[in-house]
Amino acid sequence: MANGSRQAAWEFFGAELKRRREDTGFTQVELGSRVFVSGAYIGQFEQAIRKPQLDVAHRIDEVLQTGGFFERMCRKLINDRRYADYFAPVAELEALAKEICEFAPTVVPGLLQTAEYAREVTLASNPLATDEYVEEKVRARIDRAQILKDATRPVYWAILHETALRISVGGPAAMARQLDHIATMVRERKTLVQVLPYATGAYAQMGKPLKLMEFEDAPPTAYTEAVYSGNLLDDPAVVKRAQATYDLLRAAALSPEASLALIESAAEDFRRCASTT
To answer: Where is the HTH cro/C1-type domain (predicted)?
Structure first.
């Protein structure tokens, strides 16, 4: 579904939600309290600013007694081929976040990937995929990264384990360009990046990616990912624990200045390797 038609469909979702809410006599605050979100949250759904998650759509159906209408529509709208089902809501939330903090233990985060890097990562998991499929995934990843170039971009703070800098994805020349891209983003002050060096040894959240997102008018969320699955968490106690984990990672990582020096040094290592092959 093209972005324009998706937006029109979300606007229809919001208009229907408003109509059916008003038919029952609920205010936004009253409906929000019954589905465990704020009234402002409901207002964002109705204005198509924020895309509801399946569990919220399901609770709305129960409260408004709409026979599963909103859940069915939500399922249809998040069935976007560009993203895995479990990641589509995360991509929507990234565009609304005021701050994103991310830890990447082995792979450069999607928001920092070059097209070359994204293509190689996609092919590694889908070696028999068509060119059309691969390019669709690459475009989706590059489109997501546009939020870091917008005037209203979120604060983006990434912690990369040194492993993510050293694995040669796409060959030495491509990897040098990937690391140059990260360094450029840092120097242009579009992102903050720290590196967790090998010398750190054991670390919190060992081997597991973590993404934290904060919003102007909604509770913070945490996202973790495993093989073919992801968990988008908004329980306040769980999110608080995830934030504490991120604080431990930030404390163990190199300073931003030392991290940039390591990124640029790794890029030079790959460039030298490329020139000798």
So the answer is: 17-70
**In sequence order, what E strands does the chain have?**
99-104, 155-161, 192-196, 210-214, 221-226, 229-233
Looking at per-residue confidence, does 56 or 53 come out higher?
56
Task: Return d(Cα 172, Cα 177) in angstroms, integer.
Answer: 9
Residue 56 to residue 65: CA distance in whole angstroms: 14
Q: What is the pLDDT of residues 128-153, one digit of tens each?
A: 989 988 998 999 899 899 999 887 88
For residue 197, what are its two tokens?
């060096």
Give DSSP secondary structure letters for 243-270. HHHHHHHHHHSPPHHHHHHHHHHHHHHH
Q: What is the C-alpha to C-alpha distance for residues 215 and 154, in angstroms, rounded to an integer?
A: 9
Please name which of 38, 86, 28, 79 lies closest in space to residue 233, comparing C-alpha atoms: 86
pTM of the model: 0.73
d(CA 48, CA 82): 20
Tell me the domains of the chain and their CATH numbers. 3-77 (1.10.260.40), 88-275 (3.30.870)
Return the pLDDT at 95: 84
Scored b (16 or more CB within 10 A) or e, 31-69 reads bbeebebebebbbbbbebebbbbeebbbbbbebbebeeb
Q: Nearest 5 degrees, angle CA 94-CA 182-CA 122?
A: 65
- Contact between residue 169 and residue 175 where contact means Cβ atoms under 8 Å apart: yes
Residue 277: which H helix or E strand, with range? none
Query: 């159906």: which residue's tokens?
Result: 61
Q: How far apart are CA 7 and CA 15, in angstroms?
A: 12
Q: Could you give phi then psi for residue 156, rounded to 5 degrees?
A: -120, 120
Q: How far apart are CA 11 and CA 9, in angstroms?
A: 5
